Sequence to fold (328 residues):
Amino acid sequence: MERHLFLFIPRDGDPAFVAPEMYDEQIREASWVDDLRLWADGEDPMELVAELADEMDLRGGRLLLDDTMWALFTQDLRETLPDATLSLASGVFDDLRMRKDEAELAALRKAGRLADEVSVEIRKLSEAAIGLTETELADEIDRRLAEGGGEDVSFETVVGSGPNGAMPHHRHGDRDIRRGDPVVLDFGAYVDHYPGDQTRTVVFAGDPSEEFEAVHEVVRDAQQAAVEAVEPGVPAEEIDRAAREVIEAAGYGDRFVHRTGHGVGLDVHEDPYIVEGNGLELEPGMVFSVEPGVYLPGEFGVRIEDLVAVTEDGCERLNDSPRTWEPL
Ligand code: CO
Fold:
């Protein structure tokens, strides 16, 4: 929200919140931090920040900021603490977060299974999905994710039917699903604080075009080639190349308009990014998506996505629902 809310975590000593008074109870319920400096509407929160800065000796110090902090708050910190050095916390944490421990992998596996289960249930709607709008189908997916134990959706569920599937960032709208339509289904939910993220491109009923069938096979082969390329020591960009080579060979290279994948952890998009130019060598415990796609504007799109975890000698897929397009 627009009200200033900071959590200061010193290198040594106890953390402290500077927060709007109205969040008092909520913060105490959600965290174990005892030190709350509360400000009321009409008061200046930066006065509390200045006090805290003296106590924690921050004035000439180095502050690592949350990347997604409001620019408004950052600006006020700059003015209140002109001699402090501000940089991004991601510079420190991104590297630490890339390799998942066993508890994190267990949560990611659960999130993967939930996405798989809902994907299969939704595809079994078959004829019953015809005539639903994308939004109605997205609501149904979200409802089942919640019912299956999902804490929250990982991102706004994608249902891209027919030509809408050709826009990789289309979410869902009022277009209704028709017989023979390719439909991109990209969704997931958090389980134990870790997100799922899976994509299948399917047909609920009827016959799609021949070109769709051909493109689907190309994308599926590309995804398979990329997954097979995953092993420790291989640079991240090699995984992107493995997918891209298959799609280029089939003549659709210019229609694969995004990177092959992104890391997944506490955030659904984090390091390592599977993209040309990223020479980072894969290590056991890294988890990322492998999601090549081909997008034909005005016609359809195809994307197939699984999360994989790098193991000692290859990788483990965290998603394993059928990668076919045919009705289940
Ligand atoms: Co993804």
Summary: The domain at 99-317 is CATH 3.90.230.10 (Creatine Amidinohydrolase). The mean pLDDT is 97. Helices lie at 24-30, 45-56, 71-80, 90-97, 102-123, 134-147, 210-229, 236-249. The chain has two domains: 6-88, 99-317.
